[in-house]
Amino acid sequence: MNSGPRIFKRSEMTLAPAVTATGATSIARVVNASFSRHIGGGVEYLENVAIDWTVTYDEILFIFEGRLTLEFDDGAHECTAGDIVWLPEGTHLKYIARERAGYFYALYPADWAARQGTSEP
């Protein structure tokens, strides 16, 4: 495990496809289990997609680009740059991006997929 502080430059982040049953995104998982036993984080971009998902971890999103609609049981919520979203474990939602939208995410635990015997999309 890497120890000590680290700066992640945007120009050095590699975006990879994250493919789910209902759509695909581009994601850079910069803080992961190789850096922390506790928290994960990175950036994700969505465009022309609607993804149905249930979070099985605690997660915070910070929207920094575009418009992202999040649809919960109580309806749709439009999020734009500067908005912060709290998603407690067990939240079912739909991510809807009609245009390019980007957000920073932080989640706990970093190794949620391994704990559940699965792999991250």
How does this structure look, described?
3% of the residues lie in helices and 54% in strands. The chain is built from 1 helix and 10 strands; from the N terminus they run E-E-E-E-E-E-E-E-E-E-H. The chain has one helix spanning 112-115, and strands at 16-20, 23-31, 40-46, 49-54, 58-65, 67-72, 75-80, 84-87, 92-97, 101-108. The chain has a 6-stranded antiparallel sheet with strand order 1-2-3-10-5-8, with no helix packed on it. The protein has a 4-stranded antiparallel sheet with strand order 4-9-6-7, with no helix packed on it. A hairpin with an 8-residue loop joins strand 2 (23-31) and strand 3 (40-46). The longest helix is centred in the C-terminal third of the chain and has 4 residues, at 112-115.
Features:
single chain; mainly beta; 3% helix
List unreliable stretches of 5+ residues: none
* Count of individual helical segments: 1
Strand content: over 45%
Distance between the termini: 22 Å
User: Can you tell me the overall shape?
Assistant: globular
Per DSSP E runs of 2 or more residues, the count of β-strands stands at 10
CATH superfamily (homologous) name: Jelly Rolls
CATH class call:
Mainly Beta
**Helix content range of the residues, please?**
under 10%
How would you write the strand order of the largest sheet? 1-2-3-10-5-8
Structural class: mainly beta
The ordered H/E elements are EEEEEEEEEEH
Enter the CATH topology name: Jelly Rolls
Radius of gyration: 14 Å
Report the biggest beta sheet as strand number plus sense, adding barrel if it closes.
Answer: 6 strands, antiparallel
Mean pLDDT: 93
CATH architecture: Sandwich
Number of domains: 1
